[in-house]
Design goal:
Elements lengths: L1 H38 L9 E3 L2 E3 L1 H12 L8 H15 L9 H13 L2 H17 L5 H75 L4 H30 L16 H10 L4 E7 L6 H21 L5 E7 L3 E8 L15 H10 L3 E6 L4 E8 L5
Parallel strand pairs: 3-4
Antiparallel strand pairs: 1-2, 4-5, 5-7, 6-7
Helix pairs in contact: 1-2, 2-3, 3-4, 4-5, 4-6, 5-6, 6-7, 6-9, 8-9, 9-10
């Protein structure tokens, strides 16, 4: 595809170049014909040979044809072309001919079109005076030719500016698409981390507990393993949905409903079942919040509890939701001693919780206390009054 596009661009460039050359050739031929018609219109000067009804002389024909032919190079050297055209007219006037000044007018318009405005204005003054004093053309003709060339230049630059702006917007759109894709990948990585870290940790603790009580209480061990199995199946289903969404370009793979604060009690109960002495406290007036904010609060609690389960051995863990008028305070505090629940280096743990809080416009504080570790998230919810 890229090769075909490259060939198409090359062919278009050749077409444009040939079109410009054909236009210059046609312009030179028409200008030369108009000038010859003007030159030999009327009675011929003394010494001019008449062939039939058309007066012909070698010198004016050669000079006019040469002045017209230099228009073929007007794009590369417009100032030189203007000088040659003026010189040709200056040669014909003393010989008694009356040139129309067509090559000079075309060369002046070309100069105004192709060169800087200051250069064309500087050339306009002497050219207009020459044409006026030699009785070739009036000032309005010269000024009109220059104005036409200036308009063409302005129009072309405006078109270039629009094309450049369009190209810039296209590049910006591609960059925004890349940024959006990166954000989506980050979001998916965070969701995968939440699912895997939470589920695997709970399953690991459950399996260890079942192994410990298996010799003495096999029924309790069987119930624990059943919960582990159910948790594993749910986690696998969630992972399949996410991977299916990544692999398909359509909407055939749908996200599961995102968790909310209504499911927080169920989450805490799952950790309690896994052996963590955790309790949930609600203060203030509970009310529905924005979906993104509830998801962030839920994931922050989930991550904090997972860290406690992995890194500490507390006797009490307290999860508190404080519904304020303009702010939701989420607190997870344990008395697990001096162990550091922050995952190492790469981490999606504390860093991920801070990112989730920042997305909602809030903040998160994670620090050691005298007896354990405290995570506090402050999430703005707006004025509910």
């Amino acid at each position: 595809m890229n090769r075909l596009l490259g060939r198409a661009r090359t062919a278009y460039g050749l077409l444009v170049a040939r079109r410009s050359a054909l236009f210059d050739l046609a312009l030179a031929v028409i200008t030369t014909g108009v000038e010859l018609g003007q030159l030999f219109d009327g009675a011929p000067p003394v010494g001019v040979i008449r062939v039939g009804v058309i007066p012909v002389d070698v010198i004016p024909v050669v000079v006019t044809v040469f002045a017209g032919s230099v228009l073929l190079v007007r794009r590369r050297a417009p100032l030189a072309v203007l000088i040659v055209a003026c010189a040709g007219a200056a040669v014909l006037v003393p010989l008694g001919y009356s040139p129309g000044g067509a090559p000079v007018v075309v060369a002046l318009a070309s100069l105004a079109d192709l060169r800087d405005r200051r250069v064309s204005v500087a050339a306009l003054v002497p050219t207009a005076l020459f044409l006026l004093l030699a009785s070739i053309s009036s000032l309005p003709v010269s000024i009109g030719a220059w104005a036409l060339g200036s308009y063409l230049q302005t129009r072309r630059r405006y078109t270039w500016a629009l094309e450049d702006r369009a190209a810039t917007l296209e590049r910006e759109r591609e960059q925004l698409d890349q940024i959006a894709a990166q954000r989506e990948r980050t979001s998916i990585a965070r969701e995968l981390h939440d699912i895997v870290a939470h589920s695997v940790t709970v399953m690991l603790i459950g399996v260890r507990g079942a192994r410990d009580v298996l010799p003495t209480e096999p029924q309790v061990a069987a119930e624990t393993l059943e919960r582990v199995e159910a948790n594993a199946e749910q986690s696998l289903a969630e992972l399949r949905r996410i991977l299916g969404l990544l692999r398909t370009s359509d909407n055939s793979a749908q996200w599961r409903p995102q968790p909310s604060l209504d499911q927080l009690a169920e989450l805490v109960s799952g950790y309690r079942t896994a052996g963590m002495p955790v309790r949930l406290e609600l203060t203030g007036e509970a009310r529905p919040l924005a979906g993104g904010l509830e998801l962030s609060a839920y994931r922050i609690v989930e991550e904090a509890l997972t860290n406690v389960l992995k890194h500490t051995d507390p006797t009490q863990v307290t999860v508190t939701l404080d519904y304020g008028r303009t702010q939701l305070d989420v607190t997870v505090e344990d008395d697990g001693g001096g162990h550091d629940p922050v995952p190492s280096a790469a981490g999606h743990g504390i860093l991920g919780m801070r990112e989730r809080a920042a997305v909602t416009g809030g903040s998160l504080d994670a620090r050691h206390t005298a007896s354990g570790f405290l995570v506090t998230a402050r999430l703005p919810v707006g004025d509910a009054a």
